[in-house]
C-alpha cells in the first residue's frame, strides 16, 4: 500500500515529520516560518539525509497558506501548534495570546477534510485553568465547518459549538476527537516528556481507534537494576560502581518480587540516559575534530538548588527550549563520575530519538532550542503507526 499523503504544520526542525515519515506518511508539504529551523531541514536535505531529502519545505507563516494548492486527497494533517500560550514555563495567556495557532490547525482541517489529524502540544494545555479552552479546541476540531465569526468572542463561539454538539446529528464534516496526555518514557523514549496528543478521525469513516498501549515502565527498570541486575550487566558496569538501591524504592522492589515471583515484568524497562548516550565517544571542545556530528562540549554547567541536571541511570528530564533558560537544569547531565556538564547537541538529539545522521548546524543554544521544541521521533512514530494501521482497514 502506498504512503499516506500528509501536510504538517509548525514543523520545526523535523521531529514529528521524521516520526510520521518512518510510520508511512508522504509529506506533501511541511510548513514552518522559523528561518533557523528551516535551515536545519535544508541542511539535512543538502546532505541527502533520508527522509528529509523527500520533503517539500515551505518557509511560510501558516496563516498565508492556501490549501487548495496541494491538490485533493490529503489524508492526514499533523502539527504542533506553538505551545507558548499553554507552556508551564510561559505566561499562560492561552486564548488571549496571539501566538495561539490552534485556529490555524482547525482551518487546515476545515479546508482539506483529511481522514485523520494528529496534533501535539505541551501538558500545560490540560491544566485546570485552561480546561474550558481545551474543550473549545476539541469542539472546533470536531466541527471544523462551524467557524468563528468576525468579531465573535471565543466564549460565544464555544456556546454555538456546544449547542450544535448537543443537537441533532449533522451530516456535515465532523471528527471523532480523542485527546490523551502521554509520557514519552512509556513508549521507549529515554526522557520524561509529557505531551498532549489530539487525534481525530473523520466521522463518516466509522473507524474504531484508541491510543497505542504503553510499552515501557518504571517497574521494569527497577527490576532490571535491583532484582535481575541485567541493566548493569548489559552496560558492563561492575558491582562496585553500580548505583545503590534508594531507600524510597525498597517497598516497591519488595512488592515486585512478590508480584512476579522471579518472572520478568511484562513491559520493557524505561530507557535511561546511559542507554541513549553511553556508546558515544567522549565529546570534544569546539574546534577539535570528532567522528560524531554535533558532539561538542559547552562549558560552564553549574548546579544549585533546584538546578541539578538529569540522572544518568534514569530517563532524562524533559529537554526544554525556553527563552528564559531551564530552571531545573534540564539541559545538563550528572555523569557516573559525579561530573556535571551540559548535554551535547548530539546527546540531546539522541534523547529526543533523532537519528544520528540528522544534523544541526547552528549554535548550541539554537540547536538546543530546536531539539527542545521537537516531538520525540519515536513517540511520533508510535502514535502515527497506530493511526495509519487503522486507516488501512477503512
Helices and strands in order:
Blueprint: E1 4-9, H1 15-23, E2 25-32, H2 35-46, E3 57-59, E4 76-79, H3 102-112, E5 116-122, H4 131-142, H5 154-166, E6 175-183, E7 194-202, E8 216-217, H6 218-226, H7 230-234, H8 250-260, E9 268-269, H9 273-277, E10 310-311, E11 332-334, E12 340-342, H10 345-351, H11 364-373, H12 377-391
Parallel strand pairs: 1-2, 1-4, 2-3, 4-5, 8-9, 10-11
Antiparallel strand pairs: 5-7, 6-7, 11-12
Helix pairs in contact: 1-12
End-to-end gap? 13 Å
Q: Strand percentage, roughly?
A: 5-15%
Q: What fold name stands as the CATH topology of the largest domain?
A: Rossmann fold
Large-scale geometry: globular
**Parts with pLDDT < 50 across at least 5 consecutive residues:** 87-93
Largest sheet: 7 strands, mixed
Order of helices and strands: EHEHEEHEHHEEEHHHEHEEEHHH
Give the CATH superfamily of the largest domain: Vaccinia Virus protein VP39
Strand elements, count: 12
**Adjacency order of strands in the biggest sheet:** 3-2-1-4-5-7-6
Radius of gyration: 22 Å
Return the structural class: alpha/beta
Please count the helical segments.
12
